[in-house]
Amino acid sequence: MTVTSDIAQVRLAQLGLSLMALGLLGACAFNPMRPLPAINQKLEQNGGNRDPSLSGRWLALIKGRDGRERIELVNLDQNRPISLPGLNRPDAQPLNVSVDAAGERMALIRQRDGRTELALYRRSRESLQPLPLEPPGVPRQVQLSADGRVLAVQVSRGGLWQVDLIELP
Q1: What's CA 76's distance to the chain center, in Å?
Q2: Chain centroid to CA 122: how far?
Q3: 70 Cβ contact partners less than 8 Å away, ≥ 6 residues apart
Q4: In CATH terms, is domain 37-167 a member of 2.120.10.30?
Q5: What is the number of other CB atoms lying within 10 angstroms of the CB of residue 133?
Q6: E strands, the chain, where?
């Protein structure tokens, strides 16, 4: 009899958790997520945006303007874009971007001179450093850790997709 009552208690506990989960889902249905109108209006000015990366108060994205795409960094606390000297070149097409939580480091993938390359931008130094991949491959997507010390890169090698984790100095 003890085994049967234990099973019944487990099933009742599972039922209680299921009902609680349904209640939480129901609460979400009554509070739909909505865009932030002030920042969205500002972002939509002067062209479209793609590939957002959000970390802390920083939003990095690729913004299209005047037939050209460029990387933009927005301080969400101040609701304004931040200058990025040395990052956006007229001969380079940004493909993907990621930012750390301090807004100091940005990892990016860009196309330049017919090559797809991975690079790291440091805002305080206003410098862009290419990052070679070993073994060589074609980077597609990048994600920087919140502390800016580790980079995850999706890379194509020999027709296979792989993910490389790279520790940064």
Answers
A1: 15
A2: 17
A3: 62, 63, 88, 94
A4: yes
A5: 16
A6: 49-55, 58-65, 68-75, 80-82, 92-99, 105-112, 115-122, 127-130, 138-144, 150-157, 160-167
Residue 108, token pair as written in the block? 């990016």
**Domain range annotation of the chain:** 1-33, 37-167
The Cα 38–Cα 51 span in angstroms is: 20
What pTM was estimated for this model as a whole? 0.73
Task: Find out whether 56 and 98 touch, Cβ atoms under 8 Å.
Answer: no
pLDDT tens track for 109-164: 999 999 999 999 999 999 999 999 999 999 999 999 999 999 999 999 999 999 99
Q: Which of 135, 167, 140, 134 is nearest to 155 (CA)?
A: 140
